[in-house]
């Protein structure tokens, strides 16, 4: 299994964002996870396309933009222009999920749907061909540093079954990302349930030695048995 670790810059020092991004990539991160909150869809406010554009020259690692915004389409287009590689959004925040997925892909990015703890995976039923990543939230969106909701493991297993059936039929890979409360001490269980891409904010940026955390996560992943 090809595992990917995606530090969430939500927990980085925003006053030194470029340096924080270079540091986690030097420490072994595969992807930069970029949380966009609008104080409407979620009760918090973070960063927009201008910040994405500003950090783009600081790394060649993929920038994975998680849109916690409503409406979605205008901002998705702006992030594609600002240098995002992957753009995910919450299906219930879009009036036309299929259209938003197409908009993101037509702009040259990978597209994905995000599922809150209480959102049904049935949104996937008719759009698998237009999805490159599924993101399962293991916390309610809006804040870093929350505890992992154990029921998310069942949803990860269900998403993994859908992906494996789809890949067996089409040969096309879809990434399965998990976000919220992922730490060294639970990443192995999350991987065993079927995830291949792991967002971690406070677990990485909350410690002084990013490499030690990422190495410890990889050591746990090596034992996951998938
Ligand atoms: O999307 C998010 C919150 O909405 C964050 O990416 C997520 O919670 C990661 O933070 P942590 O690893 O500290 O839980």
Attribute tags:
226 residues, alpha/beta, TIM Barrel, eight-stranded parallel sheet, 8 helices, globular, binds ribulose-5-phosphate, manganese, isomerase, metal-binding, Ribulose-phosphate 3-epimerase, calvin cycle
Describe the protein's architecture and organization.
The chain is an alpha/beta fold. It has one domain (4-222): Alpha-Beta Barrel (TIM Barrel). Helices cover 35% and strands 18% of the residues. It has an 8-stranded parallel sheet. The termini are close together. Ribulose-5-phosphate binds next to strand 2, strand 8 and helix 7.
**CATH homologous superfamily designation:** Aldolase class I
Instruction: Give me the oligomer status.
Output: single chain
Q: Would you tell me the structural class of the helices and strands?
A: alpha/beta
Helix content range of the residues, please?
25-40%
Task: Specify the CATH architecture.
Answer: Alpha-Beta Barrel
The hetero compounds bound to this protein are: ribulose-5-phosphate
What is the 3D shape? globular
Output mean pLDDT: 98
Relative strand content: 15-25%
The string of secondary-structure elements, in order, is EHEHEHEHEEHEHEHH
Tally of structural domains? 1
How do the strands line up in the largest sheet? 1-8-7-6-5-4-3-2
Uncertain regions: pLDDT < 50 for 5+ in a row?
Answer: none
Under the CATH scheme, which class?
Alpha Beta
Task: Please tell me how large the radius of gyration is.
Answer: 16 Å
Largest sheet: 8 strands, parallel
Number of helices: 8
